[in-house]
Amino acid sequence: MEIFKQIAPLKAFLKSKKLAGKTVGLVPTMGALHEGHLTLIRASQNENDITVATIYVNPTQFNNPKDLLKYPRLLDKDTELLQEVQCDVLFCPADEEMYPEKSILTINFGPLNEVMEGKFRPGHFSGVALIVGKLFNIIEPDRAYFGQKDWQQFAVITRLVKELKYNLQLRSVPTLREPNGLALSSRNLRLTSEQRAKASVFHKALQEANINLLSGKSSSDVKRLVARSFYNDPEVRLEYFELADSENLNVVENVSASVRPIMCIAGYVGEVRLIDNMFLGENVAVSRV
Ligand code: PAF
Description:
alpha/beta; 9 strands; 19% strand
């Protein structure tokens, strides 16, 4: 695996590959890699000649400085994992390479920004778009791969690509889960084993909401039921549950008001913030690890 910390040699390397007709897949990550990330790598390897993984904990997307400080950083272990799955290139820049001066650009996604993660994490998607845009400009991939767990992020990046006319295809890859249903996430490393067990409440709530919505209950009734499933344990806190249109993220009151509704949930277990989602009617059993 080729490892680059600087932009210029990475670009030169990729240019030579592109001149030789090779296609490039990009898997952007913040490290602390798990099986979900490796699934993204494999998806890229299936469709591209060269797969570039990036590891960079992007400061501009953290609205909570404590969260940035505590984000797990495991570069040596991550490098080994990427070598094991035969990833071709790792780009792991330092802050000075990605932000040589303090960024003053903000990107406002309007309505996509005003709901769910955008509402609870002000500035988050501006930071995501800033770093993903930089990576697209540096790597110029043919395809880029993102996990479905961050669905709102995927919707925002889809809009970024469309509006700024990036010449690439985006792929969303289904979420992998622990046996208890907890979505794989780098943040799970911060949970104790007891907390991990408790964190299954998010997936369970989505499954129950799925059944209730499909059986005709209104979105507001289902919201109340979801909130109730969080009452019993003070360590587990619901931030939001929304039923939304998966493309424009408009909140949907009635399942028939959207072609492809998605249920999104977020909250805390202890100090750790977790998110998850499920398309209405989705069969999630297939994506377990
Ligand atoms: O999903 C993530 O891990 C991050 O938001 C991303 C896309 C790597 C940008 O920092």
